[in-house]
Amino acid sequence: MNPRWLAVVAGTRPEIIKLGHVARALGPVGRVVHTGQHESPELATDVLASMGITSARTLTGIVGRSRHTQIGRMVEQLGDLFTSDEPAAVIVQGDTNSAVSAAQAANTAGVPVLHVEAGLRSFDRAMPEEINRCVISVLTDVHCAPTTTAVRHLLNEGVSAAKIELTGNTIVETTLAMVPAAAEAAEIAAQAGAEPHRYVLATIHRTENADHPARLEAILDQLTKLGLPVLLPLHPRTRQSIIRFGLTPALDRLRAMPPVGYRTFLGLASLAGLIVSDSGGLQEECTVLKRPLIVVRNSTERPESIAAGFAWLVQPGEAISELGRQLLADSALRPRLSAIPCPFGDGTASDRIAAIARGFL
After folding, report:
1. Of 117, 271, 321, 339, which sits most exposed with the smallest number of CB within 10 A?
2. What is the DSSP letter of 176?
3. Sequence-ordered alpha helix ranges (H) in 58-181
4. DSSP state of 169
5. Measured between alpha carbons, how far is 317 from 296 in angstroms, rounded to an integer?
């Protein structure tokens, strides 16, 4: 195996964000491979630049394809790369099509796999991400688990304890490094026409919500009933669904906007009175930012946020507006959340993971 490099594979904005500090900690031996699963500047190239990644090999013909086409093309191209210029190991993160493709390509090329954020489970096989997580686990040589809950899931599935490392979650250090100071965050909110702590920040993009007209309509309707302005950065997929389902009139009652850069997004999140989202990453970021989050999903693979008191899992419907108004009216909520420790680690996960990865060189 080539002792000179470690492949850091990322294809979506969350992966870039969570692996950026790992890549930097690895230095020259860590080379980023961008699969192209996210292609727009707001979700890919701008995020790479914000994480200090100025050179990344990018695959072609991936974005906008069906899931099976994406995975097939990524496995083919990554497999060719890992065979022709074999890395010492391949680092993947999370549960995306990019991550499962990289793990399969590495395995077929005989290259070890290190899985960042290993062991998360929703136990909901209707989620494509859950299938990806389970497949990646079978192919992984070192499981970097973010929490003790994740470690327990892996052990229950028969993974050897010798292959599991409790590292914490890299989102902690990334959020702390990227979130703007209060004054800058207030300026970001002002530019969006919002007053600190007097607005709601919402994001919707998951298949179970964005691809189902009744669910998407219910979510948009409930957001309008929260009693505060709702800032809604729209994922390209969600915008397309809103147009396809004829739901554009609902946007007239919300402050829809294009996707924003990660630092800008963290600034908005840090001063939001409430966050409503189906994002997995926000379930972690809210515990660093100390903000309340309503998780609009069928299930979650991050129960730590809920157990700690930062997040509430609800289905689309009246529960969103009812719970949201209760949380916004709770004057003691903000100081209460500020006193709760983050359940995802101490902000040194990236250094731990980089040190583990160097062991393959």
Report:
1. 339
2. H
3. 67-84, 97-108, 128-139, 148-156, 171-178
4. -
5. 10
Name the one residue in this structure whose structure tokens are 């994922």.
235
Assign 157 to helix, strand or coil: coil
DSSP assignment of 270-287: HT-SEEEE--SHHHHHHH
Q: DSSP secondary-structure letter at 192?
A: T
Nearest to 150 by CA among 136, 167, 171: 167
Whole-structure pTM value: 0.92
Question: What are the structure tokens assigned to 192, written together?
Answer: 């969006």
Helix, strand or coil for residue 73? Answer: helix
d(CA 208, CA 278): 9
**Alpha carbons 281 and 9: distance in angstroms, whole number:** 18
204-252 residue pLDDT tens: 999 999 999 999 999 999 999 999 999 999 998 899 999 999 999 999 9
Please, are residues 313 and 300 in contact by the beta-carbon 8 Å criterion?
A: yes
The Cα–Cα gap between 225 and 324 comes to 9
Annotated catalytic, 34? no
Total residue length of the chain = 361
Q: How far apart are CA 333 and CA 324, in angstroms?
A: 12
Hey, what amino acid is at 280? G
37, pLDDT greater than 90: no
- Which tens digit of pLDDT belongs to each residue from 280-298? 999 999 999 999 999 999 9
Backbone angles phi and psi of 9, in degrees to 5:
-100, 130
Residues 6+ apart with CB under 8 A from 82: 7, 90, 105, 106, 109, 111
Catalytic annotation, pick one of 38, 153, 205, 235:
205
* Cα torsion angle, 121, 171, 20, 295, sign: positive
DSSP three-state, residue 31: strand
Distance CA 162, CA 152 (A): 13
Strand-pair partners of 255:
231
